[in-house]
C-alpha cells in the first residue's frame, strides 16, 4: 500500500481504530488513533523506517487496504483496539511481542474486587485463574491503559489497594478522600452497591457503552420516581461524563509532530485588567498559519479570586466545558511557569493531556522566548507567536470595551 492509495480514502479527523488488511482481506494490524486521518497518514511519511521500524514497513508492503471504525472518544478507541487484538490476534500486532509483553486489566475475584493494570509477564507467572473475575486485554500501551483507567475511575470509583473496612472506626483511604474510591475502606459502600460499580466497569471494557448508558438511564429514572434525588443526580452526572468523553492526548504514543494535514488547531489565552477591574480573558485560534477570528471567544472573569492565575484557570475551565468545540492540538499561554502550571491543573481536572507552550515576555511586553516541547516550537513557532499576539490584542480590545461600559 502506498501514499497515493490514501487519496481514494476519506479518513475522518476523529478518534477510532484502523485496520490494515492484505489482498485476501486478512487483518494484518489493528491500531488506535486520536485522529484517524493524521494517524493513518503518518504511516506513509518518508521516515517510516526510523520512526516505526522494519516490521511496520513490511506490513505496509503487504497491506492492500485500510478499514476504520469511528468511536465517540479515545478511551473507546483504546478499549476497541484491545478487544479486536484479542479476537483476531493480528500477525503484526503480535509478531514482535508475546503475551508477556502486553498489559492487561484485571478485576479480582474478591468480596470487594480490585481493578488493576497488570503486566503480562506478572499475570502469567504469579496470578492464578481462580483469583481473576474478569480479564481484559491485551493492551499494547500500558501508559495509555493507565491514563484511560484514570478517566474511568472518575466516573466509576473503585478499589485498587485499600483494605476493606473491618469496623465502624475504619478510616477512609486517600483515594476515598478525593473521590476515587467509593468507601470500601470506610464501610461507606455495600457489597451490592460495589458489585454494581464493577458491572458497569465490565460493560465499558467489553465495549458495551450503549447498553451501559441504557442501564444508567433506567436506574436514574427509577431513582427519580422513588424520590431518591441524590442518587438520580449522581447517575445523571455519570451519564453526562460517559457521553462527553473527548479525544485527548490519552494515547501518548500517538502524539508526534505531524507532517501537517491542516487539522492542527492552536489555541492561545490571555487575561486583561487594570488593578483587577474590568477583568476579562480571551481565546484565539490559529489554523494552517491563519487566525480564525470566527472561533475567537471572550470571557468576563467571574471568580472572586484575584490575580492572572485564577483568571486563566477560570477561562480554561469554561472553555473545556464546551464539549462541542474541537479540542486544540496545542495550548499557548502568556506568561511563565505559574501560567503553564495553571493550565496543567485544569487539564488534569478534565482528564486532558494537551501540549502547552508558554510565551515569556520581556520588560516591554514583547515576546522574548517560547518555552515547551522543542519539536513543537520548531514546527509551529510562527503560529504560536501569531496566536499569542492575537490573544494579547483581542484581550486589550475587549478590556477597553468593558471598561468604557463600566464608566458610563
Give a description of the structure.
The chain has 408 residues and is an alpha+beta fold. The chain has 14 helices and 13 strands. 36% of the residues are buried. Residues 251-262 have low confidence and may be disordered.
- Average residue pLDDT: 87
Number-wise, the strands total 13
Give the count of structural domains: 3
Count of DSSP helices? 14
Protein structure class: alpha+beta
Rg (C-alpha, Å): 24 Å
Report low-confidence residues grouped into runs of 5 or more.
251-262
Shape: globular
Strand share of the residues?
15-25%
Query: Can you summarize the main beta sheet?
Result: 7 strands, mixed
Distance between the termini: 67 Å
Helix content range: 40-55%
The ordered string of helix (H) and strand (E) elements is: EEHHHEHHEEHEHHHHHEEEEHEHEEH
Summarize, please.
The chain folds into three domains: 3-94, 3-Layer(aba) Sandwich (GIY-YIG endonuclease); 99-243, no CATH class; 264-407, UvrC, RNAse H endonuclease domain (Nucleotidyltransferase, domain 5, 2-Layer Sandwich). The protein is 42% helix and 20% strand. The chain has helices at residues 36-42, 48-52, 54-62, 74-88, 91-94, 120-126, 142-155, 174-177, 191-205, 209-225, 229-243, 308-320, 337-350, 374-407; strands spanning 16-21, 27-33, 65-70, 103-108, 115-119, 132-139, 266-274, 277-287, 290-291, 297-300, 330-334, 356-361, 367-371.
Amino acid at each position: 500500500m502506498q501514499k497515493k492509495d490514501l487519496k481514494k480514502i476519506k479518513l475522518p479527523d476523529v478518534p477510532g481504530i484502523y485496520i490494515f488488511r492484505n489482498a485476501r482481506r486478512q487483518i494484518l494490524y489493528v491500531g488506535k488513533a486520536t485522529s484517524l486521518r493524521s494517524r493513518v497518514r503518518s504511516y506513509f511519511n518518508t521516515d517510516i523506517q526510523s520512526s516505526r521500524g522494519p516490521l511496520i514497513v513490511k506490513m505496509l508492503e503487504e497491506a492492500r487496504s485500510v478499514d476504520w471504525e469511528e468511536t465517540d472518544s479515545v478511551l473507546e478507541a483504546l478499549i476497541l483496539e484491545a478487544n479486536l487484538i484479542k479476537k483476531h490476534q493480528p500477525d503484526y500486532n503480535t509478531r514482535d511481542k508475546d503475551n508477556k509483553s502486553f498489559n492487561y486489566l484485571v478485576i479480582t475475584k474478591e468480596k470487594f474486587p480490585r481493578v488493576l493494570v497488570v503486566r503480562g509477564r506478572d499475570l502469567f507467572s504469579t496470578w492464578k485463574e481462580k483469583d481473576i473475575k474478569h480479564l481484559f486485554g491485551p493492551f499494547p500501551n500500558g501508559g495509555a491503559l493507565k491514563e484511560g483507567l484514570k478517566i474511568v475511575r472518575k466516573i466509576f470509583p473503585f478499589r485498587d489497594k485499600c483494605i476493606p473496612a473491618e469496623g465502624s472506626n475504619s478510616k477512609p483511604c486517600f483515594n476515598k478522600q478525593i473521590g476515587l474510591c467509593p468507601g470500601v475502606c470506610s464501610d461507606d459502600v455495600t457489597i451490592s452497591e460495589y458489585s454494581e460499580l464493577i458491572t458497569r466497569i465490565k460493560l465499558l471494557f467489553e465495549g458495551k457503552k450503549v447498553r451501559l448508558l441504557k442501564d444508567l438511564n433506567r436506574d436514574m429514572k427509577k431513582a427519580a420516581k422513588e424520590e431518591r434525588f441524590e442518587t438520580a443526580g449522581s447517575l445523571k452526572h455519570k451519564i453526562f461524563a460517559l457521553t462527553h468523553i473527548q479525544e485527548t492526548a490519552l494515547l501518548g504514543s500517538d502524539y508526534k509532530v505531524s507532517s501537517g494535514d491542516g487539522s492542527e488547531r492552536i489555541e492561545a489565552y490571555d487575561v486583561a485588567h487594570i488593578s483587577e477591574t474590568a477583568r476579562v480573558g480571551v481565546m484565539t485560534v490559529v489554523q494552517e498559519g491563519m487566525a480564525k477570528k470566527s472561533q475567537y471567544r471572550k470571557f468576563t472573569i467571574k471568580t472572586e479570586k484575584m490575580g492572572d492565575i485564577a483568571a486563566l484557570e477560570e477561562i480554561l475551565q469554561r472553555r473545556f466545558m464546551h464539549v462541542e468545540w474541537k479540542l486544540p492540538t496545542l495550548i499557548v499561554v502568556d506568561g511563565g511557569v505559574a501560567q503553564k502550571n495553571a493550565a496543567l491543573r485544569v487539564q488534569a481536572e478534565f482528564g486532558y493531556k494537551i501540549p502547552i507552550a508558554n510565551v515569556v515576555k520581556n520588560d516591554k511586553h514583547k515576546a522574548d522566548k517560547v518555552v515547551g516541547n522543542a519539536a513543537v516550537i520548531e514546527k509551529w513557532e510562527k503560529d504560536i507567536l501569531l496566536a499569542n499576539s492575537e490573544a494579547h490584542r483581542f484581550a486589550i480590545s475587549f478590556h477597553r470595551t468593558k471598561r468604557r461600559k463600566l464608566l458610563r
